[in-house]
Amino acid sequence: MTEFTAGTLPYCSFTAPDLDGPHVGVGVGTRVLDVTALAPRVLPEYADLFTAGTLDALLAAGPDAWAAVRSALLEHVARSPATRPADDVRLLLPFTVADYVDFYASRHHATNVGRIFRPDGEPLTPNWDHLPIGYHGRAGTVVVSGTPVRRPSGQTRALDGSISFGASAKLDIEAEIGFVVGAGSELGEPVGVGAFEDHVFGVCVVNDWSARDIQAWEYVPLGPFLGKSFATSVSPWIVPWAALTDARIDPPAPHADLQEYLRPAGHGLDLELTVSVNGTVVSRPPFATMAWTPAQMLAHLTVNGASLRPGDLFASGTVSGPERDQLGSLLELTWNGTEPLKLDDGSERSFLLDGDRVTIAAAARTHDGRLLPLGEVDGVVA
């Protein structure tokens, strides 16, 4: 269980043996404060937002309601209210995922993948420095942390050119940060970079499971499909964007002149991710190196007039830094399996085996050097 600081107050949806159904909660230390139960007394004006036990109604309520609820909860938590141990509850998917989009915002990751998949060509495609590349994923296979992940099957192409069908032999992970949309937008109306905080409620930790052998054969010309759509795991805690004020930083300078709708870039985030396989820490990717900001991703996502809905989720893409121990996927860490990792138990991994457990945690580093845990996403290959 993540130990959250008192000022973070991440939201969750949970059940417990003594409850009739799901409740909304917030994390306080290693305990859960039951917001659904206390709302009629502490948040009477907003109590109806929590009766269903998920974040759906709160997301749709918009930024004024988010701020009012957070302020009241911060004041209430300061009085040391009754809470329950997080180990005594079962954490659920905290909101209904409306749409899911995954970006490709790390220049280091994109360069590495290009060198692996296109060794004889330029690692970055010509458009990479000009727009945040992304693809539309499958909302129905976004699952909460702890959900077992079944190894996918699909078509693959061998080095000799032969085509076969079977279970993926190159099951991988991608360490990412997700952004949860609250307030929607009108169809046909772009959301500019300056309107980001009017629409995005908070962040979560994401593992975008990937079948690299399936992906390599299918991704030309339309991009990822079955190599990605089988499962995306998210942490059960949604950290409000307002809790990350002290972790906001300037992003890296762009490598090209950007179109007006992508300027100014908006804030980057100083986040530190930790990737573990069967208890062995294999990487610590830094989100601060991401070339595209969340606001630019949202602006590009909607610039054609595509509308937002409460519960939309967009993810950053794999977070990778410039160093070998900062890479956010096994594809990069093992250079497509040619340089296996050694785990603490003496075993080696090129890609994931059945029974392997992957845990991705994240924390925000504030301007004064404090670390604010954001939660973790965990999954076992079934």
TrEMBL record:
<feature type="active site" description="Proton acceptor">
    <location>
        <position position="109"/>
    </location>
</feature>
<feature type="binding site">
    <location>
        <position position="118"/>
    </location>
    <ligand>
        <name>substrate</name>
    </ligand>
</feature>
<keyword id="KW-0828">Tyrosine catabolism</keyword>
<keyword id="KW-0460">Magnesium</keyword>
<dbReference type="GO" id="GO:0004334">
    <property type="term" value="F:fumarylacetoacetase activity"/>
</dbReference>
<feature type="binding site">
    <location>
        <position position="228"/>
    </location>
    <ligand>
        <name>Mg(2+)</name>
    </ligand>
</feature>
<dbReference type="InterPro" id="IPR036663">
    <property type="entry name" value="Fumarylacetoacetase_C_sf"/>
</dbReference>
<dbReference type="InterPro" id="IPR005959">
    <property type="entry name" value="Fumarylacetoacetase"/>
</dbReference>
<keyword id="KW-0106">Calcium</keyword>
<feature type="domain" description="Fumarylacetoacetase N-terminal">
    <location>
        <begin position="9"/>
        <end position="82"/>
    </location>
</feature>
<feature type="binding site">
    <location>
        <position position="208"/>
    </location>
    <ligand>
        <name>Mg(2+)</name>
    </ligand>
</feature>
<dbReference type="GO" id="GO:0006572">
    <property type="term" value="P:L-tyrosine catabolic process"/>
</dbReference>
<feature type="binding site">
    <location>
        <position position="318"/>
    </location>
    <ligand>
        <name>substrate</name>
    </ligand>
</feature>
<protein>
    <recommendedName>
        <fullName>fumarylacetoacetase</fullName>
        <ecNumber>3.7.1.2</ecNumber>
    </recommendedName>
</protein>
<feature type="binding site">
    <location>
        <position position="219"/>
    </location>
    <ligand>
        <name>substrate</name>
    </ligand>
</feature>
<dbReference type="InterPro" id="IPR036462">
    <property type="entry name" value="Fumarylacetoacetase_N_sf"/>
</dbReference>
<feature type="binding site">
    <location>
        <position position="232"/>
    </location>
    <ligand>
        <name>Mg(2+)</name>
    </ligand>
</feature>
<feature type="binding site">
    <location>
        <position position="104"/>
    </location>
    <ligand>
        <name>substrate</name>
    </ligand>
</feature>
<dbReference type="Pfam" id="PF01557">
    <property type="entry name" value="FAA_hydrolase"/>
</dbReference>
<feature type="binding site">
    <location>
        <position position="208"/>
    </location>
    <ligand>
        <name>Ca(2+)</name>
    </ligand>
</feature>
<dbReference type="GO" id="GO:1902000">
    <property type="term" value="P:homogentisate catabolic process"/>
</dbReference>
<feature type="binding site">
    <location>
        <position position="176"/>
    </location>
    <ligand>
        <name>Ca(2+)</name>
    </ligand>
</feature>
<feature type="domain" description="Fumarylacetoacetase-like C-terminal">
    <location>
        <begin position="101"/>
        <end position="362"/>
    </location>
</feature>
<keyword id="KW-0585">Phenylalanine catabolism</keyword>
<dbReference type="GO" id="GO:0006559">
    <property type="term" value="P:L-phenylalanine catabolic process"/>
</dbReference>
<dbReference type="InterPro" id="IPR011234">
    <property type="entry name" value="Fumarylacetoacetase-like_C"/>
</dbReference>
<dbReference type="Pfam" id="PF09298">
    <property type="entry name" value="FAA_hydrolase_N"/>
</dbReference>
<dbReference type="GO" id="GO:0046872">
    <property type="term" value="F:metal ion binding"/>
</dbReference>
<keyword id="KW-0378">Hydrolase</keyword>
<feature type="binding site">
    <location>
        <position position="174"/>
    </location>
    <ligand>
        <name>Ca(2+)</name>
    </ligand>
</feature>
<dbReference type="InterPro" id="IPR015377">
    <property type="entry name" value="Fumarylacetoacetase_N"/>
</dbReference>
<keyword id="KW-0479">Metal-binding</keyword>
<feature type="binding site">
    <location>
        <position position="102"/>
    </location>
    <ligand>
        <name>Ca(2+)</name>
    </ligand>
</feature>
<comment type="pathway">
    <text>Amino-acid degradation; L-phenylalanine degradation; acetoacetate and fumarate from L-phenylalanine: step 6/6.</text>
</comment>
<feature type="binding site">
    <location>
        <position position="215"/>
    </location>
    <ligand>
        <name>substrate</name>
    </ligand>
</feature>
